[in-house]
Design brief:
Distance between the termini: 25 Å
Radius of gyration: 18 Å
Largest sheet: 5 strands, mixed
Strand order of the largest sheet: 3-2-1-4-5
Number of helices: 10
Structural class: alpha+beta
Strand content: 5-15%
Amino acid sequence: MTTSVKRRREELCDLLAGLTIEQWTAETLCAGWDAGDIAAHLIVREREPWTGPGLFLGGPFGDLTDRRRNAWKAQGRERLIAALRAGPPRLMSVGPIAGTQVIEDWIHEQDVRRGGAGLATPTPDVQLQKMLWKAATRYAARTLSLDGNVVVELTDGTRGHRLQSRRFVPFATPTDAQPDVTVAGRPSELLLYAAGREGADVAITGEDDAVGLLAATARTV
């Protein structure tokens, strides 16, 4: 594993290991899931990639993915955390894919922290902040693509990234056009907002119609 992947996984596992029973069983930001579901989801994603279509297609595929997650969850907290500490497969923890793995772990850590467990979020270090910013712009291209040619700007106060929606195109593309709506916040909050998590600490300003369109967007990933 790269240093960043190893560190993020260790921090996630330390968090899970330190939860009380009440925090472990509390609902996370993923509706209907507790910490055990989060841990089992990560393991299935990494060890049983053939179940991946179930995350997007639902139906019989989704039923299979759910069964595998529940099977892992049934093994209990200690075995779940031990399996997570072993780390993801090498293919998922080196090269450009390693960054995706770091973000996946970080988002799901926030799902636990900011859900019923009610735990504070440590301030990300500089390296992680950079990764969170890049991830926010990637997620936003998919989840903040609105009807019409709406321009959305993400900004953390020192830098901005503008995306323009295109009719009949499922993702937004970078643009220099003036924004119709602006989403401002720290990189961590921008990422959580783009990933559809409730409670992200962002400020949204702009034209009423554009703000309304943004509010109505599902932002599912």
